[in-house]
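Q: Joint fold for the lines below.
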Amino acid sequence: MTLIERTDDVNSCWRDLADVLKSGISRVLLYGPSGTGKTYAALHHGVGSVPAERLVCTEDLTSGEITGTWMPVGENRWEWREGPAIRAWRGSGGVGGRLVVDEVDRASGDALSTLLAMTDSPESARWRNPETSEWVRPGPQFSVVMTTNVDDLEDIAPSLRDRFPVAICIDRPHCSALASLSDDLRAPALAGSLGPASRRVSLRSFYAFDQLRRHLGTSRAAQLVFGEDAALSVLDALAIAAIA
Amino acid sequence: MRALVHPELVTGREDGFVSAAWTVKPGSTRRGEASCNLTERILEIPLGNDATSRVVRAHELMHARVSPHVIEHYGALDDVSPRALECAEELRINTLIARLDFDVTLLHDGSEKNGARRVAESGDWSEALCFLMAVLSTGGEKEYLAGIRQVEPSWMSGLRAVRKRALALMNALASPTLAATRLNDEQLPSGYANATIVLARLLTQSMNARPPTTPEELRSFRRSLEPGGRRAPTGKFAPLRFDENVTMSLRPRGEGLRRARPSTTGSTMRYPSRLLSDERKRAFARRSTFHGGIVIVDQSGSMDIDEASLSMLLRRAPDALVVGYSHRPGDNGLTPNVWIMADRGSVATTIRSGNIGNGVDGAVLAWALRRRRNTEPIVWVTDGQVTDSHDHPDDGLTLQCAELVRRHRIRLVKELGGAGRALSYSRTTSRSQWREFGRLGRKLLETQAF
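A: Joint structure:
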């Protein structure tokens, strides 16, 4: 069985995402273990020539960091700087672009309310520029992809969740993300994110291990990347995987 | 602190097994307390940081890497003992992890010697063979063999022969071949098919064989382990397996067979000698119509029967029960070895041919005796050869059959054509006729002498 045949099975989540975006669904929630390439896909997949706007949520995120804020531009002069959400609404020439909201489960309070407004349906969403009093609406090609590492969607505010009718669990990296990894590590790297959090080995770890082992040898590279506790177990599993 | 294990990273299978998350449960290094459930992806393993726990984990992870994961991959193996398969697979797994430099001598839990003693004390040669495969090359092997030696030293030569063959079989295959999971033409993982199944077949036939004790038996046993070698003697009959697919149809009844029977009254004194020899003085003859009897037909080898002979028999004895038998040497119960050709008025629509071997002679005779009505005659169509389930002639089994023949006055004939006549005679086969029946005849003469 070739790698391509295998990818038909293991890449179903990525196929789902491609199909959903291709169908014109403009609000998608991607969730699953970290290190599988959710953010990368959200930033690059189905995005035109204009780069996607990215918003990383934290507990301290404010609504100003979402929609915009007054910035001092000289003595007693202030200018309104639009935030990533409004920039994405406008996109290139007002047609709308892509907004990527990372770690959405961490947003709370004021920021969460603003996110609700920004991700509302195209018919309801609108925002007034405090500087020009212009009413801004999302452009026709505006899309928003939220990502989160939660395993259970219950951890996301129901009102926010409701704005995202399609939620896709991304539980493994995209095959194309493995291209520059050594042959023997590709299949384990694809499966490394499948287990519970305590056992997950991210794609980034595999890349680091692959690079380090060329210089430091397998054992030391494993210790440095996976840690003392997991190094032996990971190496045992890799050796057994490579038996045939 | 618990050790980590990464079953998800054990990838590389080519048999359609889809990678997914595993459930890891704490087990132990004791035998039977670690397992790998590929269907539900449950790994039960010791989570200690010691070297033994690590090797046990590697053993279970190797199962996750190479063992069949769907029942269909075992499905074509009805001719192989499940226990033999299980233990042969253990040897394959241990061989593979040893080649990855895991120290398999750590695989022992101290129960091997006592376990071996119990197996030997119960006379379970099959389990002795299978379990040897499970501990072969591990730290438990020496203790296990010591336990067997204490109770059944006569088994040692046979066990050593199987051990040698099993190791040779594994060593002949490189790791990529031994561990291959690509499905072959029979839809079996090829490493499993080339090593585990081959060994399990050898084990299954050796399990059925008699443990070799004499040099000659050992030579025969060793030969049986070689590719294409003849199976070793088992010293026992195979269990009867009736053909359930025989279609019977009612046969027009003939007149049956008239024959004379001794009687205390009558018009002609046919047996004057009985006035002296028979305490009931049945010197007269009474004609009676005879309809039944049991005919047992050995259909092994070249002993074909034709429909004309069967029809002729059934004209004379329309109510006869006629059974054919022949066992496929080494068959594990898959192939029917006995079939009804006529059953008290109905007759099989087709007559099936034999399976080369005898294998069930004594078992069929015993079955026929249980089906016997009153003192109706039993006729055995045989060439006098009695063989075990691997089709080896066997003195003990021949004697067993000879005793049944003598005790129950079973009549012997060489061909089915003579069965009708034999049914009609009131006499059993004479001593002079016994000589025509090979080993069975000789055994009859020997036993008669005592």
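Q: Anything notable?
A: Chain B has a mean pLDDT of 89. The radius of gyration of chain B is 29 Å.
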